[in-house]
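[Meeting: bench + compute handoff]

Bench side (C.D.) handed over the final construct sequence. Compute side (W.E.) agreed to return the predicted structure before the next meeting so the bench team could plan truncations. Sequence as handed over:
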Amino acid sequence: MSAESDKSPIPSPPTVVLAACAQLPTGDGDDDGLIDALTAAGLSARWLAWDDPEINSADGVVLRATWDYPDRLDEFLAWAEGVDLLINSASMVRWNSDKGYLLDLEAAGIPIVPTAVVAPDETVSIPEGEVVVKPAVAGGSRGAARFTDPQHAADHAAALQAAGHRVVVQPFDPAVAEGETALVYIAGQRSHAFTKGPMLPEPGVEGKLDESGLYLVESLAPASPRDEFWELGDSVLTAAAHAVGVMPANILYARVDLLGSGGSGPRLLEFEAVEPSLGWHQLPETKRGPAMARFALATAAALARR
C-alpha cells in the first residue's frame, strides 16, 4: 500500500454564514473584518441574505444585518425556526424581536424607561408631556417619533395600529440628549462600549434614513461607562437569558442600551440580541482585532457544541 493511500482525507472546515438582507448583502460596514476573524478561527465564512436558499447548507448562521425582518416578521420567524443552528437562537430572536420583552425584563426587576405596549385593537393612552411613539417590531428606529402634542401622538399610534402594529408609548427621557450608552457582550462576557447620539430629531421632524432606507443614521463614539452601567448590563443579560431558557454564555452577542446622566442611575432603553450593530469600529485597531477574535472563537465553539 502506498503512503498516499494511507493518508486520511483532510476534513473541510465548518461553514458559517453571516446573515444579511438583499439591501445590505455584506452588512452595513460595522462588521468589516469579521470574515477574516472567522477564517482565522478555522471556519469557512461568507455573507448571504437570510432568504437565500444557499444559506440552508451552512453549518451555522449568525444574524448580522437582517435589517428587513420587521417588514417580513412572520416569514423571518418561520425561517429562523427552521435553521439547524441559528446564532443567536430562534427562541431569543422570537422573544427579542418585539419590544414587549421590556415588560418581561421589568418584571424581573430591571429598571427600564417607562413603557406601555398596546395591541392593535386596544386604546392607546398618551401620558402628559413629551412622548415617543413607535412600533413594537421595528429596526433602526424606523416608525419612531417624538411628540409634544398628544393628539399628534395619538394619531401616529392609530396609524401604526391600523397597519397591524403593536404600539410602544414611552415618555421622552431628556437623558437622550447626552446619548445612549451601548454595552456589548460576547459569549456572555463584557467586551466594549460606545455611545449613540440622539436619533430622533425635534418633535415634528423626521429622522434621516440611511441610503438603504432600513435604519436611521446614527452618530457613534467610544465610551468608558461607569461600573454601575456594566453592573446593570450584567443583570439585563442574565434576565434575558433566563427569559428564553438559555445560559448567558450561549448568547454569542448582545447589546444593552442604557440611559442615565448626572445623579440618575442607569435605565434600560433596549436589549438587542437579534442583529444589533456592535460598534466594532469604535474600538482602536489594537483592541478591535482581539474583540473580533473572541467573537470568532465563540462562534467556532457554538458550532463545536452542535
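W.E. noted at the follow-up: The helical segments are 3-6, 34-40, 73-82, 90-96, 101-107, 150-162, 227-244, 285-305. C.D. will use this when planning the next construct.
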